[in-house]
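SEQUENCE-TO-STRUCTURE ENTRY
===========================

Backbone structure tokens: a row of integers, each naming the local backbone shape at its residue.

Task: work out the structure tokens from the sequence, keeping to the layout shown below.
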Amino acid sequence: MTQRIVVASGNLHKVKELAAMLARAPTPVEVVGLDAYPDAPEVEETATTFAGNAGLKARGIADFLRSQGEPGDTAVLADDSGISVDALEGAPGVYSARFSGDGATDATNNAKLVERLEALGRTSSPAHYACVLALCRVDGQPITTEAMLTFEGRWNVEVRVERRGEGGFGYDPHAWVPDGARTVAELTADEKAERSHRGVALRAMLATWPWGT
């Protein structure tokens, strides 16, 4: 039986990345993003933690899908993730996607990151990516023992003002992997999935299979 999964994100990069990793699940999956639901609400991220925001998004989209008649056993998967820079006292953290304010884009967020580092006289800083995945069913019934499951992943990197690579998204062109030879934006999709914060969290989630038992 195929498990339907709705990724509670309008970020097509995240949806594509998660769909590729979910293709390795031990049971067949059908993955769709919120682009399949033009009327889906934008869930306000009011929490101060990745786990809090991921939970808000998962519950909010599950409620919406239930109102649209989506089958109860459809799973909703929400991701909240970002980068925390030591030299910036952990910023941007949960505000990574909107670091540069209203209308933020990857380009403006990266420009602000570089600006903040240079203002401190820094060309680099230790940092880490963090990801929390929240998983629930549309009908709110337990997946295993709980109605909401969360999975966390972390990836230590170094951010530099130097930019390199055209792959990935977000802060990847400025995030250098621990060996210092490449940026995250220079990794292949498979290499990134194997190392990344999102990959760690997703593999922990896959270990819960089969769902609903």
